[in-house]
């Protein structure tokens, strides 16, 4: 399997795990859609970020990530990886993030490290009142490395 196919398969497994774990989600104020990944690369280091309405993740995943499922809350999930010949390896990092809505109201996200086996993810939540667009700025500094910045927008719509 090529790296591209492996990444696509991994993304599909993540979406299925996030959407399918636990009991059925309650009605959401957001459209449930496959997460759109934002990514930046410096050398062999990748920073990937996804934002998901917390109502589309299952109870087990919400518990694992320490996130409360709520129609007005979205979860930012950031991974910092070294992309080497044999695949990706999780890297410890310092991750900070902000989210700002269309009116300019800015939220500092409290990012926390979540470990699961060999994987390390960084998770934070933001409040949103749909319809709105949140502008995210994520800064990840891998251990012993330089800061990497990722900027992206996500739209949220009432359901």
UniProtKB/TrEMBL annotation:
Assigned keywords, A-Z: Signal
**Does the keyword Transport belong to this entry?**
no
Recorded hits in InterPro entries, A to Z, give: DUF4426 (IPR025218)
- This chain's protein is named DUF4426 domain-containing protein
| Annotated ranges, domain DUF4426 | 40-158
The signal peptide here is 1-29
Q: What PROSITE patterns has UniProt attached to this entry?
A: PROKAR_LIPOPROTEIN
The record's Pfam families line, in alphabetical order, gives: DUF4426
């Amino acid at each position: 399997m090529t790296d591209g196919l492996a990444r696509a398969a991994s993304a599909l497994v993540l979406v299925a795990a996030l959407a399918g774990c636990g009991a059925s989600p309650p009605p959401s104020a957001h459209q449930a859609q496959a997460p759109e990944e934002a990514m930046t690369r410096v050398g062999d280091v990748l920073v990937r970020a996804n934002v998901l309405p917390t109502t589309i993740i299952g109870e087990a995943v919400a518990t694992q990530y320490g996130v409360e499922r709520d129609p007005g809350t979205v979860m930012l999930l950031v991974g910092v990886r070294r992309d080497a010949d044999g695949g990706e390896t999780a890297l410890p990092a310092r991750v900070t993030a902000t989210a700002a809505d269309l009116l300019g109201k800015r939220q500092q996200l409290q990012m926390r490290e979540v470990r699961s086996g060999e994987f390390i993810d960084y998770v934070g939540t933001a409040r949103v009142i749909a319809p709105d667009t949140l502008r995210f700025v994520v800064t990840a500094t891998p251990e012993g490395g330089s800061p990497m910045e990722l900027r992206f927008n996500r739209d949220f719509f009432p359901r």
